[in-house]
Design a protein that fits this description.
- The chain is 24% helix and 35% strand.
- It has three helices and eleven strands.
- The radius of gyration is 16 Å and the shape is globular.
Length: 190
């Protein structure tokens, strides 16, 4: 059994295999950025997703999930997280409401050559934002969604509204009320 920390779309239960067990967690000393550039040469699509990195101040923290998986599932997770490098952090670094059966937790951090803010050529996909926001709203409620927004750096980057034809492979469906709520919340951070 191994564990990894999800701090973006992996928070959304709909984006993970059914049997994975996940626990809400907070990681102190790290920050989350809209700054992981993805290039999909097969589709000629380029976008920016989330990355995490050690913060300049130790008091900085981000919420997410610690997920337990079988070690045999690690290659699939590594494939999903291409363009990132996997490292491990002591499980004791996490504030979590469970006793983990592991000593370390993996976290995926953008490779240096992929770490850059969103721009017109590498926009943030609205369908990706929607997926992440829905995951935080469902797992952490309104307060947790607001914390996600507040603690994420890079909201000023270009955003591509692809809701009508989502480019994000794990896009989720939202109600009109959710779309309105998320749009109003995003305006506070842009």
């Amino acid at each position: 059994m191994i564990a990894y920390f999800g701090y973006g779309s992996l928070v959304n239960r709909e984006t993970r295999p059914v049997l994975e067990e996940a626990f809400r967690a907070r990681l102190t000393g790290w920050e989350r950025h809209w700054a992981h550039r993805v290039s999909d040469d097969a589709t000629a699509r380029h976008c920016t997703s989330l990355s995490a990195r050690p913060a300049a101040t130790a008091a900085t923290a981000i919420d997410g999930v610690v997920v337990l998986i079988e070690e045999s599932e690690l290659p699939s997770l590594d494939l999903r997280e291409s363009g990132y490098f996997r490292q491990t952090i002591p499980a004791a670094a996490f504030d979590i409401e469970a006793d983990l059966p592991v000593e370390e937790v993996a976290i995926y951090q953008s490779l240096p050559e992929n770490f850059a803010p969103a721009n017109e050529d590498f926009p943030i996909l609205q369908s990706y934002i929607d997926c992440v926001m829905a995951g935080y709203a469902r797992l952490f409620d309104t307060h947790g969604l607001n914390e996600f927004m507040r603690t994420t750096i890079g909201w000023s980057g270009d955003i591509l509204n692809d809701r009508a034809q989502p480019h994000y492979p794990r896009a989720v469906s939202l109600s009109d009320a959710q779309k309105t709520e998320y749009e109003l919340l995003m305006k506070q951070y842009r």
